[in-house]
């Protein structure tokens, strides 16, 4: 069934381009190879590093007016924070109820939306004073959150990304994110909208059943749901994570210190990344793509 769907989709794309559908086997093979080429993999350079609270279990990150805003998780210590980049100092904070596990955040129209893991609650705060403005409820888990200036985008541990109304928090569309090998891209986590793309952390991307590649970020085109590139951040923060050759599930004390936090400063074209319980925040420059 999947093969038939792919074949029909390919015929539709060629037919809609205005060109006749070719019966030449070599031409079709060439077109097929072009379509199935894997997305490019980009590297990185560290521009600068900054202090980061090692007790912050980072679940969401964004940049606004010279400050970072961070959502930290875990039951009993979940919060929303305003943080000085240069020092890592928390200058403003809202503590969630001890029964809530905070997840992703995004800023839209002067309001910060913060979701929770299993509690089905989205809180909306005023970005200036963290005043709680309203709450929404939703079904299922909440992981990552971002927006395109109009709609919200949320992940829930699966390969499905929900497109939500900012007024009602109701889903009006679903995006199925697939890998180039045809498998669903599971465990899409913290999200950031960057130059028309959604950049997604992948929870434990190093696990063989997930991706088998350490510290990978997926670059997703929201108009097509396709992964159009990867960013390989392997080795970026060795002191904050287990060694590269560790065995997943072995109980290493830093095993849950996964890469999770992308913040983009569009005015200065700066990109920041960090992870759960990392001691550092990194300003990076994306390089490449690498030679495949």
Mean pLDDT level: 88
In CATH, the homologous superfamily goes by the name YVTN repeat-like/Quinoprotein amine dehydrogenase
Radius of gyration (Å): 20 Å
> Ranges with pLDDT <50 over ≥5 residues?
1-34
Percent of residues in helices: under 10%
Count of discrete alpha- or pi-helical segments spanning 4 or more residues: 2
State the distance separating the first and last CA atoms. Answer: 31 Å
CATH class: Mainly Beta
- CATH topology (level 3) name: Methylamine Dehydrogenase, Chain H
Total beta strand runs: 20
Give the gist of this structure.
With 292 residues, the protein is mainly beta. It contains 2 helices and 20 strands. 35% of the residues are buried.
Key structural traits:
292 residues; mainly beta; Methylamine Dehydrogenase, Chain H; eight-stranded mixed sheet; 9% helix; 43% strand; globular
